[in-house]
Amino acid sequence: MHNFGLLGHGNDTAHWIPKKVCGPLEGLHISSVSCGPSHTAVVTSAGQLFTFGDGVFGALGHGDRQSTNVAREVSSLRGLRTVLAACGAWHTVAIVEVVDSLNSATSCKLFTWGDGNKGQLGHADRETRLIPAYVESLRKLSFCQVACGYDFTAALSTSGQVYTMGSNAFGQLGNPTIDGKLPTVVKGSISSSCVEEIACGSHHVALLTSKARVYTWGKGANGRLGHGNNFDRNTPTPVEALKDKQVKSVACGTDFTAVICFHRCTSGLDQSLCSGCRLQFSFIRKRHNCYNCGLVYCKACSMRKSTKASLAPNSNKPYRVCDECCTKLNTAGDAKKLQNSKPLDGNPHPLSSEATDRENTVKSLRVRISRFLTMESFKPEGKHSRNNSRFPLHHSGNLSFGSIGHSKELTSLCIPTSTALPLSCGPISPHPTNRLTTSVLTSPDSACAYPSNKNMTEEVARLQSQVKELTRKSELLEAELDRTNNQLREARTTAAEENLKCKAAKEVISSLTTQIRSITERTPEECPVNDTWTSQVSKLLGSHFCENHLNDVSRAPASSAHLAHQSPCKENSIVADVEWTEQVEHGVYITIFRSPAGHKYLRRVRFSKRHFTEQQAERWWAEHRPTLHEQYGILTGDSIIPS
């Protein structure tokens, strides 16, 4: 890239090979370089900081928005020693040594500048800084390493804690509850660990602890987090694939992560079982280390050797490897040969060099055999002539040259150059079935190919069995899922029906409540009976009532209660009237009225609905009416005073 002078050569010319950056950096010893998508930062061993590239957002720290294609020192940090710098997309972060004025102690502080729209500068105001600004919220801490993503920043303190700030769109800050305006320490699973190294990609973070454990979080697309999937992580998550590795360093690209690991063989004291057959080691079953993966195997699981082992002291000699590593190494070698093969003239399909040698050897063999058959010394003469059938020599139809052509079994035909016996020239066998034969030798590679093919066949069979097992499990899970879906669908249907019934019941209850409320408001203490019952009772009484009530009585009223009524007389004087209620029997109540003249009249009869129906009430009144009149001295006829 050379846009905006990213190379620092003073022009916009592209260079396809490395070229020394001169100018202000000429003669200076460089300690570290950091490259961002749009600018570059260079730190010298003397503590000077130089930047060049695109300065539109102030990422160069020169106090303006001018771009420069030549390295230029950051003047605001002149006189201070810059330890390390990191470049984001449009911002820059540097660790600068600062001397405390109180105790004269030196500590490494964090300075940031450039675009702060996402809070990646850590100043809480999201404003752009054109010159390096001290992060005030981290004034009590000292830092040893810093890394920048596209729009966020991660810094490692000397105490082994990680602080992040900026965008948290993919969880790259390690804490899903923060907004990134201010630097926040990353906790979670690394809260009790001492972090030794950090690295940032465009939207993810990776770190290495003192126990050689690797943790990653942030955007998980393309598998950059190393967890076997593309899921995002918003908290530090250990990479289980590197759990048994001795990791030395970690680094991040835009959308990938890489680590450097130490190769180490597993000690026999650490493992008591064979890594292949899982049998326990004993006095007879010895331990052997695989020179490719370093694990411990028994002799039966590590009998093969290979010259391609990664831990072999001498790459030219074969060393013991396990069966799995041997298969992998042979497969990798075959793939490499296939990639390096070149197409032959006139053949659209590329062939390997080994196949070409086989083809040439077969052609040479055909020529030599044809010459051999035409030699005079081998022609039948005299008693061995063609007419003599005692010792027939069939040479015209018994040699099949076409069968030698591309057979995989005959990988190398070496008649003139091999140590095999030549064509039989000794005395002719007395048996009439003897024929001219040739000695064919196979190359040493074919002997090695057989166990490799056998292992490949076993590997294919094992994978096929795993595929079948996984297919069976998948079918069982699908059936379980379908059954669960059906149950869920039935439960939803039942719930919907019950909901409809509940709504209908609520409507009925609401309607009944409304009716009861209206009846209660319209009716006094005693509820009137229907017109039919009232009219029939009036006929039985033989008098004209203005109001007749037959109500349900839950408890008997006090018979001694007397009510005084004021009724008008002809002389317009007020006379006190007396009436009371008597309980004739259980569920039957009569109200008696006594006029000022002392006459008793029957005002009303009430029956309890809990004990009498309309027919039973009518029948009871017809039977007991005379008895009541006689018992209470009630006058009969039309002279009853209405209520």
TrEMBL record:
GO terms for molecular function: zinc ion binding. PROSITE patterns: BRX, RCC1_2, RCC1_3, ZF_FYVE. Pfam families: BRX (PF08381), BRX_N (PF13713), FYVE (PF01363), WD40_RLD (PF25390). Gene3D superfamilies: Regulator of chromosome condensation 1/beta-lactamase-inhibitor protein II (2.130.10.30), Zinc/RING finger domain, C3HC4 (zinc finger) (3.30.40.10). Residues 453-501 form a coiled coil. The keyword Oxidoreductase does not apply. Keywords: Coiled coil, Metal-binding, Repeat, Zinc, Zinc-finger. Residues 268-330 form the FYVE-type domain. Residues 337-359 are annotated as: Disordered. RCC repeats lie at residues 47-98, 108-159, 160-211, 212-263. It comes from the Eukaryota. Residues 578-633 form the BRX domain. InterPro entries: Brevis_radix_dom (IPR013591), BRX_N (IPR027988), RCC1-like_dom (IPR058923), RCC1/BLIP-II (IPR009091), Reg_chr_condens (IPR000408), Ub_ligase/GEF_domain (IPR051210), Znf_FYVE (IPR000306), Znf_FYVE-rel (IPR017455). PANTHER family: PH DOMAIN-CONTAINING PROTEIN (PTHR22870:SF430), REGULATOR OF CHROMOSOME CONDENSATION (PTHR22870). This is FYVE-type domain-containing protein. It comes from Aegilops tauschii subsp. strangulata (Goatgrass).
